[in-house]
Design goal:
The protein is an alpha+beta fold and 205 residues long. 38% of the residues lie in helices and 20% in strands.
Length: 205
């Protein structure tokens, strides 16, 4: 009965029914089709604006950093090494101990050191001393920069002598250095030269 009454009502009001159906179709179309399209277009426009602002800010920042970056200067060219002068005295102090312990071997360091008494007898006849060779031994040489330094020994003391200089504690001057020998000049005997051959360290040990 209700369906028949509804059908009769629609037949009587056909114009109103068509309008109601059109309104419902329009609302459904707007809600599910038109409104999502409008929101998507608005989001695209907002995204384009944001990306444009970001690109502008990035370009300005890069321009500012490039303008503020300092100029890098190239390094100076390498210079050739300069050899300094050789100081024989400082090298001598490093290689040799000049002081000795005054105490004898033992635990009691307060014992008095007995100095040996040397008795010298006068010779009956005068003795003539003839020196044919300087009391200096030659034990090789080394080079520092452009300087040659000979390793000499006198009475168990190492004497490092540069070529052309005077040998310490002697009247001799070092005139020549070779691997086999050295030549020294006696400054007190009319510049007489003496040759000193290379010493054999194995035999001395």
């Amino acid at each position: 009965m209700e369906n028949q009454s509804l059908i009769e009502l629609i037949k009587k009001n056909k114009v109103a029914t068509v309008l109601i159906v059109l309104i419902l179709v329009f609302l459904a179309t707007d809600a599910f089709i038109l409104r999502p399209r409008r929101k998507a277009q608005e989001r695209e426009k907002q995204g384009l604006k944001v990306t444009g602002n970001r690109a502008t800010n990035t370009a300005s920042a890069s321009t500012a950093t490039s303008a503020a970056a300092p100029k890098v200067t190239p390094p100076s060219p390498l210079a050739e090494p300069v050899w300094g002068t050789l100081n024989i005295e400082k090298l001598q102090k490093r290689l040799q101990c000049n002081s000795r312990c005054p105490f004898i071997d033992g635990r009691n360091i307060f014992r008095e050191i007995e100095k040996p008494v040397v008795v010298v007898e006068a010779p009956s006849t005068p003795v003539q001393i003839v020196i044919n060779q300087p009391d200096i031994s030659y034990h090789g040489f080394f080079t520092v920069g452009t300087d040659k330094v000979a390793i000499l020994r006198k009475e168990e003391e190492v004497l490092l002598t540069k070529l052309g200089t005077k040998v310490r504690k002697t009247p001799y001057r070092l005139a020549s250095i070779t691997p086999e020998k050295v030549v020294v000049t006696d400054l007190s005997d009319k510049l007489k030269d003496y040759e000193i051959a290379l010493a054999d360290d194995t035999e001395s040990n």
